[in-house]
Target: Nuclear transport factor 2 family protein
Amino acid sequence: MGTKTSDTIKRSVFTSPAEVEQSFYEALREADLNKLMQTWADDEDIVCIHPNGERLVGSQAIQASWKEILAKGPLSIEAKIPVIFHHGMIVIHTILERHYFATTMGQKELLCHVTNIFQKNLGGWHLILHHASLAPPDTALDELHPTTSMLLH
Model:
C-alpha cells in the first residue's frame, strides 16, 4: 500500500479480519470515532465509499466523513450473511448491512451491500476498504445464500 498516516491514532492489534469487523461495527453502534479509526490501516491509500457517496481516500478524509456521520449519534447496523474470500494477507468480506432508524412513521430498515477488505501486516489485520451500496428495495435476507468461505489460490 502507500504511505503511513501522520495522525496520532493508536492502531489496535487485531488477530483476524473478523475481529476487525466486529470492532468496526461496535464502534458504529457506540458512535466511537476513535475506536472506528483504530480498525483502519495506517496508510494513506485506504478507501471508504458510503452509500450514494463519493470515494474517500486517506485517513483524514475517511475520519472527517465518519465524524460527521457519528456526530448524529450511534448507528444501529447489523452485518449479515458474509461471503468470505481468503487470499494470503488479504481477506475480502461481502456482507449485507441491515440499518435500523427511527422516522416519524416508526422504525424503518435499509439494506446495503458491503465489501470490506482487510490486510495483514506486522501490526496485525486492519481495514483497507469499506464500500457500501444501497441494496435494491426488494432485497430480502432470507433469499440470500448462507455464510460461505472461499480460499482463493
Summary: The radius of gyration is 15 Å.
